[in-house]
Specification:
The complex is a heterodimer. By secondary structure, chain A is of the alpha+beta class. Chain A has 2 domains: about 1-115, no CATH class; about 135-355, no CATH class. Chain A has helices at about 1-5, 10-20, 115-135, 135-160, 165-185, 190-215, 235-260, 270-295, 300-305, 310-350, 350-355, and strands spanning about 30-40, 45, 55-65, 75-80, 95-100, 105-110. In chain A, strands 1, 2, 3, 4, 5 and 6 form a 6-stranded antiparallel sheet that branches. In chain A, β2 and β3 form a beta hairpin. Chain A is globular. In chain B, α2 (about 20-45) packs antiparallel against α3 (about 50-70) and α4 runs antiparallel to α8. Chain B contains 8 helices and no strands. Chain B has helices at about 5-20, 20-45, 50-70, 75-100, 125-155, 160-195, 200-205, 210-240. Helix content of chain B is about 80%, strand content about 0%. Classes of the chains: A alpha+beta, B mainly alpha.
């Protein structure tokens, strides 16, 4: 009975968190309203100067305040949404949103409330992880929490002191990330040392090779100024993104190779060959993991560019280009990790087993 | 020479040196994925339903990654069937979550970048976000499916439950690291930005861009976690049916 029904637990967690977050308005200081009734005008056709056809709908929204001193007060405001929904969204009865007061004493929509879906999906994912991983989950969770704490600390240092160079801060952060993850996932032994050292070595070698090629080609057709959400030093942040982004995949590969090689009884050369064989099998899919993450994220912007009359080549270069570059440089690290880890693991292991 | 072709050339040389013929087919898979993703963006902008485009592009990506990086036909077959099952389940999760999250399109922080763009372009950004959510998980699904299928074959048909749970833990554990760093590498800029603006936690949690990115990570985590038991189930079912 339990064996089958336990797979419904993630769904139960999802519903519980989603429902719970609908009742949490009183934890917020900013006014939150729940929509009680909506009347909409007929969709109005709209054509821009590029010939894109869209529809705009104006909603008259009646809502009830869920928090603040005026809890329970009824209010009305208007909301305009489009079919494409680039910067707007449709409200329905039951929607919750943040509102702000206008100069005239009325209210206006400010932002949608999203904590429910975020927490619900987090609950779903965590329940599923516990079901599948059992006790192993504790270590993985601790490792990720420790890394988040490190990241928060680094951001704090970066913002509070102007003396620390951001480059060395993030390079140090990458080394710390690797050390912490290795200790949590592999343990504190020779195998962990090999995995940790090769992860750092391969990532550094990959980014170094990337830097060399960027410099030799003079960043031609690569637009670092389009790195998102950066006010200063886009080049620095671009490298930081590549380093942190590829760290996990390289680490994944290095631990797989060292674990397999350390179980072999054979001599150094055979160990090296075994490591290379394992590495060859996993490097392709790992490159694909990062590639899909980096590229899929550019779709929204790519479609906007294309619909705004930009050529395909221009969109690929300006919007997808940085993702491609990031994926390719990460791939350098993933490929270089194979011989590096196999070599170091073959060289380091005999002393342990041969004793 | 432009930077991207130079990077690709260097990768081709590296892959061939390290992997020989296997390296070449890995490069081919990456090339196919690049072309498929560009074509997918163009088709979505051209008015095709983004979710339909994502499913078709997803099939192409999965088969390229799985069949071009696995020599063993039984492993590749099992991994592919499992990936398709997971893709269908993940699509369900993505559709529900994106519809409820209202994170499609652009946030107020993007406003400066969007100056001069027409935003009423007649393509549903919600559907594009669903396509993004599905496609970004596919690499991770393929990787986990291949790892589990290969591991199950190594362990043999009489594998105990404990051995399977141990393998599940190991594969998901390293997979989580790959995803954690993979995504957080992409958000480094966003984190610095939020920290500079000193947004309080509750505001970050409800922020359109942050909520959207966090949901994206969770899709990938859910996808990898689902892939492991489903691939094991497919392997055992196929073994019973005598396909292995």
């Amino acid at each position: 009975m339990w064996r089958k029904w336990r797979w419904l637990l993630p769904v139960v967690a999802f519903l519980a968190f989603f429902g719970g977050a609908r009742l949490d308005a009183r934890l917020y200081r900013q006014p939150i309203a729940q929509v009680t009734a909506v009347t909409a005008t007929k969709p109005k056709a709209q054509t821009d100067n590029l010939g894109n056809r869209d529809h705009l709908t104006t909603q008259r929204v009646a809502a009830r305040l869920l928090n603040t001193a005026h809890r329970g007060r009824r209010l009305t405001f208007t909301n305009v949404y489009s079919y494409s929904g680039a910067m707007d969204s449709r409200l329905v009865v039951g929607s919750q949103c943040f509102v702000s007061t206008t100069a005239g004493g009325g209210y206006q929509l400010q932002n949608r409330k999203r904590d429910g879906i975020v927490l619900a999906l987090l609950g779903f994912a965590l329940t599923l992880l516990v079901l599948v991983m059992r006790r192993r989950f504790v270590m993985s969770a601790l490792s990720i929490l420790a890394n988040i704490a490190l990241l928060a600390l680094a951001l704090h240092v970066e913002l509070s002191s102007r003396d620390v160079s951001a480059w060395w801060l993030f390079a140090g952060l990458a080394v710390l990330f690797t050390a912490v993850t290795t200790v949590f996932v592999v343990g504190f032994n020779r195998q962990a040392a090999v995995a940790g050292v090769t992860t750092i070595g391969a990532t550094a070698a990959g980014v170094g090779l990337g830097y060399l090629i960027f410099t030799l080609t003079g960043y031609r057709n690569l637009h670092l100024e389009s790195v998102k959400y950066v006010t200063q030093a886009p080049q620095l942040l671009f490298y930081v993104q590549i380093i942190i982004g590829s760290l996990g995949a390289v680490f994944d590969e290095c631990t797989d190779i060292t674990a397999a090689v350390s179980e072999l009884e054979a001599g150094g050369a055979a160990r090296f060959r075994a490591g290379m064989a394992i590495g060859r099998n996993i490097m392709g899919p790992l490159i694909a993991v990062l590639f899909m993450i980096f590229i899929a994220d550019t779709f929204t912007e790519s479609v906007l560019w294309l619909r705004n009359g930009n050529a395909i080549s221009q969109t690929v270069i300006w919007v997808m280009g940085l993702g491609f570059a990031q994926a390719l440089v990460s791939a350098f690290g993933i490929v270089l990790a194979v011989p590096l880890t196999s070599g170091l693991a073959a060289w380091a292991a005999p002393k342990e087993v041969g004793a | 020479m432009s930077t991207i072709p130079a990077l690709m050339l260097a990768l081709l040389v590296l892959l061939t040196l390290v992997g020989g013929r296997a390296g070449l087919s890995n490069f081919l898979a990456l090339l196919i994925n690049m072309l498929v993703m560009i074509a997918a963006a163009v088709l979505m902008a051209g008015g095709f339903n983004p979710i339909g485009v994502a499913v078709v592009a997803g099939l192409a990506v999965l088969s390229a990654v799985i069949f071009l990086s696995t020599r063993d036909a039984a492993v590749a077959g099992t991994a592919f069937v499992s990936s398709l099952l997971v893709m269908a389940l993940v699509l369900g999760v993505v559709v529900v979550s994106v519809t409820l999250s209202h994170t499609a399109g652009f946030g107020p922080e993007d406003a400066e970048e969007l100056e001069g763009f027409s935003l009423y372009v007649g393509v549903s950004f919600q559907n594009i976000l669903i396509a993004t959510g599905l496609l970004s998980t596919l690499g991770a699904i393929a990787e986990a499916a291949v790892a589990v299928a290969a591991g199950m074959q190594e362990l043999g048909p009489k594998v105990t439950r404990q051995a399977r749970t141990r393998m599940a833990g190991a594969i998901i554990g390293t997979g989580l690291n790959t995803l954690f760093f993979g995504f957080f590498g992409g958000f480094a800029g966003l984190f610095v930005w939020f920290a500079q603006l000193k947004y309080p936690l509750w505001q970050v949690l409800n922020n359109q861009i942050f909520a959207g990115e966090l949901i994206q990570v969770l899709f990938a985590v859910i996808a990898v976690t689902l892939t492991v038991p489903i691939t094991m189930w497919v392997t055992l079912t196929r073994a019973k049916g005598g396909h292995n």
